[in-house]
Amino acid sequence: LIVCDPGDLHTKKGRKTDFLDGQRLAKKLSQNDLKVVYHDDSFFYDLRRVVNSYRSLTWDMAALKCRYRALYRSVGLKSKTGTFYSDLSQLEKFEKPTDLQVGQSIFVQLSCLENEKKNYKEYFEKIIKKEKKIKALTTIPGISTIRACTIAAAVCSPERFENKYKFWSYSMLIRHKIQSGGKMYGSKKVRARADLKDVFMGAAETVLK
Q1: By CB distance 3.0 to 4.6 Å, which of 10, 60, 73, 178 could disulfide with 185?
Q2: Count of alpha carbons within 13 Å of 161, Cβ hemisphere only?
Q3: d(Cα 31, Cα 7) in Å, to the nearest integer?
């Protein structure tokens, strides 16, 4: 069984159907041109599910917060920082019942997601206590408990990288040069782990602050 990179199927323009995808896969397989991707059945790979779920939750929270602020702006109300998302008294500023109903709905959703976020953090803290490898990552400046779990879940086995440059590429921290005939034509981003890029960029910002 060869687990290949599905991104290679969309390199060509034109129609996209399951039948055409099957033909392209069969052709690449006959030419020994399938790019094998890494898979792991260890605990760290299972941890990736939890980390991805946590990231989805944070994205949902960010979207709800934007909608909440937009609701206040739409009626000419200021949205102060700090305890704005947890202060229930802010809803008293709405004059129309419809605006109040929408505001209350978003506020309740944010409260529920905030509680779930706390549950995830407690889970990650338990993981840190059990896994010494992940706990070691937290000794790096800027790497918190959640960031350490994110790195461990994405990397799984550091030994699979030939060198640090391969890992930098996997973490989307570099750009690949476009060169032909000895001439440079710019650079392009690598399609890899955006979550690792977010972790390392966030850690750098934390250290700088």
Answers
A1: 178
A2: 14
A3: 18
